[in-house]
Amino acid sequence: MPFQHVLVAYDGSAQAQSALDRAADLVRTTPGARLTIAHVYQIPNFVVGEAIVVAPVRMELEELSDSERLLEEAKARTPGLPNTASALLQGDPAQALLRYADDQDADLIVIGSRGFGTLKELFLGSVSHYVVQHAEIPVLVIKAPHE
To answer: pTM for this structure?
Structure first.
């Protein structure tokens, strides 16, 4: 059974670019299939003493602008591919992707093996690992060519 709605996680890393290329190939070879390119951004909070300080609005706007630019770059990598959409999500990357996949009836998640959050992954665990462990649909994990 071919996949009809492919959701690809994109953060601009080499692994995410490879994942996007593979997801686009899958959609190209499946009549009627659609692709959604998702980017998840997080607004950082800072801990000062015992208080949590919310990031300034300027920082939030910059993050939003950078995220929108990243999605435009991703869409530019799939020229001529019909049925392509993008989604800008906020929050924990793994949980936001899983929630979006469920809400939008995706039937495949394509994700890079590693993204830009290497230090964060060291302490919190890999986004791709979490998605694989918790997704209720198939997940295709893509390594960059040099891995």
So the answer is: 0.84
pLDDT beneath 50: ranges in the chain: 118-125
**What topology is assigned to 5-142 in CATH?**
Rossmann fold (3.40.50)
Torsion angle of C-alpha atoms 75, 132, 2, 29, degrees rounded to 10: 30
Residue-level pLDDT at 1 = 66
The half-sphere exposure of 43 on its side-chain side, counting CA atoms within 13 A, is 16
Distance from CA of residue 69 to its chain's centroid?
14
Kindly report the length of the chain: 147
In the prediction, which pLDDT does 52 show?
58
Q: Give the model's pLDDT for residue 121.
A: 47
Distance (Å, rounded) from C-alpha 116 to C-alpha 11? 7
Determine the pLDDT at residue 47: 54
Strand partners, 87: 38
**DSSP code for 4:** S
Q: How far is 134 from 132, CA to CA, in rounded Å?
A: 6
Are the C-beta atoms of 72 and 37 separated by less than 8 Å?
Answer: no
Domain ranges of the chain: 5-142
The Cα 105–Cα 102 span in angstroms is 5
